[in-house]
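CORE FACILITY INTAKE
Project code: CF-77B
Contact: R.S. (postdoc)
Sample description: multi-component assembly, two entities in total
Requested service: structural model of the whole complex
Turnaround: standard
Below are the sequence entries exactly as provided by the requester. Do not edit them.
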Amino acid sequence: MATVTYDRASRIYPGSERPAVDALDLQVEDGEFLVLVGPSGCGKSTSLRMLAGLEDIDRGSIRIGDRDVTNLKSKDRDIAMVFQSYALYPHMTVADNMGFALKIAGKSREEISTRVREAAKILDLEEFLDRKPKALSGGQRQRVAMGRAIVRDPQVFLMDEPLSNLDAKLRVQTRTQIAALQRRLGTTTVYVTHDQVEAMTMGDRVAVLRAGVLEQCDTPLRLYQEPDNVFVAGFIGSPGMNIAEFTVEDGQAVLGRARIPLTTATLSALSTEGADRIIVGYRPESLDLVSETEPGAFPVLVGVVEELGSDAFLHGTLPELAEGESTESGQIVARVDPARPPAKGEQVYLRIQPGKEHLFSAATGQRLPA
Amino acid sequence: MSVTLERPGTEPGAGPAGPSPALRRAADWARRAPLLPALIFMIVVTQLPFVATLVISFMNWNAYYPDERGFTGLDNYVRVLTDVAMRDAIIVTVELTVVVVLVSLVLGMVIALLLDRKFFGRGAVRTMMITPFLIVPVAAALLWKHALFNPEYGLLNGVLTWIWGLFGSDNPPQPDWITMAPLASIEIALIWQWTPFMMLILLAGLQSRPLDVIEAARIDGASSWQIFRYMTFPHLRRYLELGALLGAIYIVQTFDAVFVITSGGLGTANLPYIIYQTFYTAHDYGLASAAGVITVIGTIIIATLALRTVSTLFQEENVR
């Protein structure tokens, strides 16, 4: 068991000017399940491979516990990794796959056999121990890859999108199994995914990366409720947050007929910036269907209504946009009562629940005080 | 060897009720007929000579005794297997094949492992390493015989003279390499030609190695040697088998090197050379044909194993 510390760690691929991972500062607590999430090419896999010793660390350092592993080889780092492709050894049986690391470490045959059996029992793989990987299903291969990691009892588990090769149903099932297994073993885990639902459901904390830069690292709930900037706000949540650029007039944010009153704190932050525009975000579930007379109500033209049974999502547009306001800003998604969904083409009135809006600077994209 | 390829859907009774059988047969022939000339040509040039050889191998047919021509049953085969010269030729063939295949495999693997690393000028070095395989076998044999092994002006003895000269001696040893080790001389020339072939096959194998498996092994704590021992070598096994079998098929048939370097003297005559001698010098067509048939049977056995290896190789690629 150990902590993991990225200390301004950077990776610059040869022939590239821009770092793939730029001065990453991250502290993973002992026994914590940390998820690295971000769009493809954001450097999340590279960050993990740096910790694994499969990528060089060009600047900064990485520590596991108190050990500086920056220049250590993978084999000396005491880590185990689950690959996206599983990377099972094709010519070895499941038992040999799981016991390989122990065999290399010079453990006795009996010890290897007991530990492999224990791991196989946890993962429900006992009946497959004599099979070769190619005779296994995708889900079983995934479990063998997990088994290969847990047999070693390492200080840190590294997982690189281990669920992305499974079908949707199995993925949801395995997701909870992995999370439960990690809680049970209590091993520090760094988990990479591009799927924000996976990140939110599995992680103790989630680190959001974009273009090699850490945007925010916090608990899933705080990422959702208090995103630090526009990128995190738009990335976390499904369907995504409504984000639009409003003009500031008379202490209110204005877009079409939508008006949102701003607090003095926000207004003073805006005036120090000298900005007359503000980015407003609001989640689909923060919108209420109201009557026209309600204060703060604004009209929305209903385009499509997605009915999912438990929820219904209204996709609509803001009418009467002023000249120069992009139509993209006028797109709105709102969660409505699935029992009484509005009809397509209808004009409805929506209101943002007071205090549920997220305000960001139009210049920097950073969160403004509310 | 004949292979019939049929689309699964065209099997009778497989699909839904199609056109009438007569129509379908006509359509089938419309597809087959244009292929017939090529097929007949192929049978004439490849299969008929073999059938002729087979027939002659059961005949007593010697150009010096034209009156004694006739069928003799298995007589020629018995003579091939009991004749001392023939039996020696079989042993020489086996020894030549085994030594050349094994040594060129080992050398090919070492070179392939080196060329699998990234370094400046890798493409140029790789091309140069392949060139021995591109040289006409006769030319290669002549090169070894005259430019390298020759005791008077060959490169080997030239190097010896130069080395001895460095130490101030003007009496360097000048061995006659081919006389000293006739079979080894042939083997060295052949190894030089076949190492690039093995290297190419093994390099292809090395480059088809899944990178993530190697990374997983590294994280599992394996050293470079252990990765080679437990990951690379098992992966290369099929490629080694393929190289060995394909190489063996060709090296069993070696004629050029034996003919050029020793003319089959000093116990270096292998089966193809003996066949050539029996045919062109002794004019014993029956005996030569029988020896030829035995060589073909041996080669078919090796080729079958080779094909089986190739097909398992493809199966594994598909699984991945």
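Facility notes:
- The CA atoms of residues 141 and 257 of chain B lie 5 Å apart.
- Confidence is low (pLDDT under 50) at residues 1-15 of chain B.
Invoice: internal transfer
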